[in-house]
Amino acid sequence: MAPIHCASMQPPQPTHVSDFTGAEDAGVDIELECAGRSAAPGQAPVLFGFISPLWAGAAAPRAGRASGAASVSREFEKQFALPDWALEAGGKRRAAASAKKQQAQELRAELRAEAASVVSDFCQRPGALRAEPAAGELRAIWRACYILPAQAVARALSDQLSWSDGDMAWQPRLRAIAAMSYFLEQDAWGRDVARRAAERGAGALEHLESDVPQCAAPARRLFERLAEAAPLWA
Fold first, then answer.
1. What DSSP string runs through 26-91?
2. Does pTM top 0.90 for this prediction?
């Protein structure tokens, strides 16, 4: 029997990229094995359809990272979010701490006011027979101040040395110096008070020593005793 020839049985002819418009400029000579069909003139070869998904996927990692980060963040919030009872307990603790801080501030203000009142009553004592206080008066102010914070008492004494209240009399300042000298001769708490008051009112003490005759000698002795005093907590 004679062999039968059919056009469909012809081996596929290689198609060159140079057959397409503009391909010569690229210098490409790629043979495409056509499985029983050839590309129509002007139609892009199958190779371009294979490569194009690579172009489209170039930005995919960035989008994936962004969406992945958002997903991780939501998952973290879901797993580690505090329950309502924990949030409520934390709010109560913060409220209690704030109230405690407010109470401490109010207590410090009360103690400061008490120290200022005790020291003012001693320094501004009306009807005193003499400016320089007696031994009994010094013991009385020591006992009254000993239960108060050293810083509050020192502040009150240094305020008596200054002229912030407009009173220019030298008698209250002399009595404040006498109280500081007495405290300095007592225990460590008294030395702490005297040193704090002298540091805070150093300018006023120097003025009293140099320019106020009635207070010059007591202020000078106070400076000398401060320099010779034992260490604070000896």
1. HT---EE--SS--PPTTSPPHHHHHHHHHHHGGGHHHHHHHHHHHHHHHHHHHHHPPPHHHHHHHH
2. no
38-91 pLDDT tens trace = 444 444 444 444 444 444 444 445 545 555 556 655 665 566 666 776 667 777
List pLDDT tens digits, range 107-143. 899 999 999 999 999 998 765 557 889 999 999 999 9
E-only strand ranges, the chain: 15-16, 31-32
- DSSP code for 10: S
Q: Give bridge partners of residue 32 from the DSSP assignment.
A: 15
Query: What is the C-alpha separation between 72 and 76, in angstroms, rounded?
Result: 6
Which H or E run contains 163? none
CA distances 57 to 1, 48, 51, 65, 70, Å, are 56, 15, 10, 13, 20
- CA of 188: how far to CAs of 193, 208, 229, in Å? 9, 26, 10
Residues in the chain: 234
In single-letter form, the type of residue at position 2 comes to A
Q: Which amino acid is at 11?
A: P
Distance separating alpha carbons of residues 150 and 143, to the nearest angstrom: 13
Could you tell me which of 103, 119, 185, 186 has the C-alpha nearest to residue 151? 119
Burial of 119 (0-12, 13-18, 19+ CB in 10 A): buried
Longest dimension (CA), the chain: 157
3-state secondary structure of 210: helix
Q: Write the single-letter amino acid at 19.
A: D
